[in-house]
Amino acid sequence: QYLTQYVDSYLSPLAAAVRKEGFGPLVRYLEDLYETEEASDKLRITQGENTLQVQIIACPAIAYMKSTGYQPSPWYAQTVSTLYQRLAENAGLRFHLDSYQEETGAASFRFEKEVQP
User: Fold this and answer.
1) Which of 15, 32, 35, 45 could make an S-S bridge to 91, C-beta 3.0–4.6 Å?
2) Could you tell me which of 87, 86, 81 has the C-alpha nearest to residue 100?
């Protein structure tokens, strides 16, 4: 519930921009996020006409937690899934978490535009 409220409030401008402009604002958000985390080399994005494929080589948050001796929750994947699922819903997209590796936080997920017949 906390994550959906966070997305609904804090990330609502991003969702609105994606609805208006397409994948561009989402790409910039992800790139800025990983640049801030000094982990740009851990992010791969492939954009097609109707799909945005995101690959996280390793999650900087997981790496940081482990470096401090903290063991991340086995439910951390739910954070990724819940956050991006809600963002996708608010932006008029579909979200698919294709893979998630608990040990490193490596993940592969995609956003898809609704294709009109």
Assistant:
1) 15
2) 81
